[in-house]
Design the sequence.
């Protein structure tokens, strides 16, 4: 069996490099070394050392921003202009982690309020939860690793990271930067198991204390059901993000925002704009403007500074997106623009109007550059349709009316509602959580660090504590 795996560009299938592949013995060695580090508490990385490592990490990333962004763009297909933003976010994410662990000092627990707690004092401090195994996705190949691995380092946990098979090189770059910044190698190990069964064996091992997963719901829930007793986890899956556009919305503003949120990274984002419920009085105007903007987007080579929409990550996914659109067409859906295959796994930005409720583009995450418009007359109709699926993540509403905005905030099934902004808005410190089948737990760097630690209490009993 080969001990390396080629990494190919999704745009032109150019070989970009190769990464090491781990056999069963190597996976076992990685787990055992990580577990040994955690069990030897005298060897834990102290807070000041973790801060120093993360500060140096941020400096190194900053100094290599352009080369990291170009490599990420070529590997994952996200346009260079957006990959630069991703690397900037990664730098900020590392700094957010530093800020959090410096300021998070545990709690004082009230004592003395009852006779049984007299002469006692209690406080908590944070400790690492144990070995972390992180399994990541392709669509933000550098920044997602920061959210999972950077958080583990900040929390003081040894971590094994398995990147997406499509984008392992960006992950490996971050791991090497951590080591260069002073993190001992066994505290963060890059692991690409040779096959799926070996990956599963690594995840469900009893020595794993926390499992961080970003990927499909089918895989995430399956792995969660097999975790060892006591292993905690966070799962981030996809959504089918709904937007409600009220009759009084600022149409040009909405169109500009929806175009970005729907076609950013060719729609391959778990909170991409997908289902847009538009009041029937403005749907024609909004649809025409959105289609016109979509037609103007530059589609092509992600390494080009001018490209706004890059390729779908793989040929199989490219074919799936095209098949879903063809199904919608065959069911009588109106196509305002797009709906066609381009070269190099690129798919034309597509705007569909009123696809049937049972079409795949209406019920499942497209994960491609496809948005769907649906007409409504009453807001309750839009809320009911928006909430009709078994996933909920981020949602949005466009309106100038505060009552409509607050009603949408209350009525929409979502962990976050954006007002006059698209569903894909995110900064790295905010909570980020899929609901229903869309995930488990709360992402965002401070929240992930909290998940990867325990709050350990000390209760002191002393006669000197008599007040």
Sequence:
């Amino acid at each position: 069996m080969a001990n390396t795996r080629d990494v190919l560009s999704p745009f032109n299938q150019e070989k970009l490099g190769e990464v090491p592949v781990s056999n069963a013995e190597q996976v076992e060695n990685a787990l055992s070394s990580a577990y040994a580090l955690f069990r030897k508490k005298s060897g834990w990385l102290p807070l000041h050392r973790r801060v120093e490592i993360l500060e140096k990490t941020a400096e190194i990333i900053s100094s290599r921003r352009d080369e990291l962004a170009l490599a990420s763009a070529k590997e994952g297909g996200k346009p260079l202009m957006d990959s630069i933003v991703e690397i900037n976010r990664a730098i900020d994410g590392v700094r957010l982690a530093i800020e959090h662990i410096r300021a998070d000092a545990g709690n004082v627990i009230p004592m003395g309020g009852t006779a049984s707690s007299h002469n006692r004092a209690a406080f908590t401090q944070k400790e690492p939860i144990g070995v972390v195994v992180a399994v990541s996705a392709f669509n933000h190949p550098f920044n997602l690793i920061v959210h999972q691995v950077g958080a583990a380092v900040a929390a003081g946990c040894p971590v094994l990271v398995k990147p997406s098979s499509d984008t392992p090189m960006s992950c490996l770059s971050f791991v090497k930067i951590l080591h260069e910044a002073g993190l001992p190698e066994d505290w963060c190990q890059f692991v690409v198991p040779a096959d799926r069964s070996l990956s599963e064996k690594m995840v469900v091992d009893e020595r794993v204390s926390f499992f961080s997963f970003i990927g499909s719901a089918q895989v995430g829930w399956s792995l969660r059901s097999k975790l060892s007793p006591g292993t905690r986890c966070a799962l981030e899956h996809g959504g089918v993000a709904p937007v409600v556009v009220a009759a009084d919305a600022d149409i040009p503003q909405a169109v500009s925002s929806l175009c970005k949120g729907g076609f950013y990274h060719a729609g391959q984002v778990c909170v991409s704009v997908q289902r847009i419920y538009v009041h029937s009085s403005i749907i024609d105007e909004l649809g025409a403007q959105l289609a016109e903007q979509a037609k103007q987007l530059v589609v092509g080579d992600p390494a080009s500074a001018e490209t706004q929409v890059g390729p779908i990550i793989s040929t199989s996914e490219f074919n799936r997106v095209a098949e879903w659109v063809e199904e919608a067409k065959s069911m009588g859906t109106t196509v305002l623009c797009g709906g066609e295959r381009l070269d190099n796994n690129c798919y034309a930005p597509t705007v569909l109007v009123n696809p049937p409720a049972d079409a795949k583009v209406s019920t499942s995450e497209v994960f491609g550059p496809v948005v769907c418009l649906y007409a409504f007359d009453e807001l309750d109709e839009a809320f009911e349709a928006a909430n009709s699926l078994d996933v909920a993540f981020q949602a949005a509403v466009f309106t100038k009316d505060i009552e409509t905005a607050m009603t949408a905030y209350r009525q929409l099934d979502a962990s976050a509602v954006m007002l006059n902004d698209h569903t894909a808005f995110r900064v790295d410190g905010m909570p980020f959580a899929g609901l229903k089948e869309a995930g488990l737990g709360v992402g965002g760097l401070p929240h992930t660090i909290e998940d990867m630690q325990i709050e350990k209490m000390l209760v002191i009993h002393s006669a000197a504590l008599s007040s």
Summary: The domain at 241-419 is CATH 3.40.309.10 (Aldehyde Dehydrogenase; Chain A, domain 2).
